[in-house]
Amino acid sequence: MGDRATKDAVYEQHARLGRALSSSKRLEIIDLLGQGEKSVEALAEATDLTIGNASAHLKVLKSAHLVATRKTGHYVYYRLADDVVAEFWLGFRKLAEHRYAELRDMARSKFSDPDGLAPVDRKELVQRMRRGEITLIDVRPADEFNAGHIRGALSIPIDDLNRRLRELPKRKEIVAYCRGPYCVYAIEAVRTLRRRGYTAKRLEDSVAEWRSHGLPVQSNV
Question: Which of 3, 115, 172, 209 has its CA 20 to 30 A from that of 98?
């Protein structure tokens, strides 16, 4: 009976994690926090939640030790608790992609290259960056770039792309990346660049995936 009680207690602790992850909005919040620290207000806006609902979801995630906080004045900022959470999220997402055809179909139809071209892979990107053959642009918001970005990337948030096109050389291929495979910023950037006569491709990796493969990431904070 003692062994049974211990086993029940162990798996109940695992179940706490499962309950914390049982909301699509909380999963989206984890994904967003993988880009860097964010305020409750920023998370509410990004996930289309009220501040009250976002706070409630964050409370659940904090109770499960998945996120941590810091307070500055009246503002509370959230971040992933540690790198283990980031690695868990990447593995969790990969498992879902392997198990659910609906997710794979959605990714192909909604988040694939607009011209049907294969995305650039990380090994090719590293080699071509070393040879100076491409310009890598990070089209996420500037605060996410500052929190962490692929070494050598240029920060051009998607909302600034049209007015900053002159900064990009047409003689080089442009590679755009954003928050990972379910982010549309890089897809929009590739469409814009191709319309303006650039050769452009998308990198599906997020900074978290890049880091998980032992590739260089740097921050401005």
Answer: 115
Q: What is the DSSP string of 36-67?
A: --EEHHHHHHHHT--HHHHHHHHHHHHHTTSE
Q: Specify the pTM.
A: 0.90
Which of the residues 178, 183, 186, 187 is marked catalytic?
178
Q: How many distinct structural domains can be found in the chain?
A: 2
Q: Which of 183-193 are b and which e, b meaning 16 or more Cβ less than 10 Å from the residue's Cβ?
A: bebbbbbbbbb
- For residue 9, the domain's CATH number is 1.10.10.10
Domain of 176, in residue numbers: 109-218
- Helical H segments across the chain, by residue range: 2-20, 24-33, 40-47, 51-63, 83-99, 101-110, 122-130, 142-147, 185-195, 207-212
pLDDT in tens, 68-119: 999 998 889 999 999 999 999 999 999 999 999 999 998 888 888 877 777 8
Residue found under tokens 């602790």: 13
- Rounded distance, CA 27 to CA 96, Å? 12
Check if 183 is active-site. no
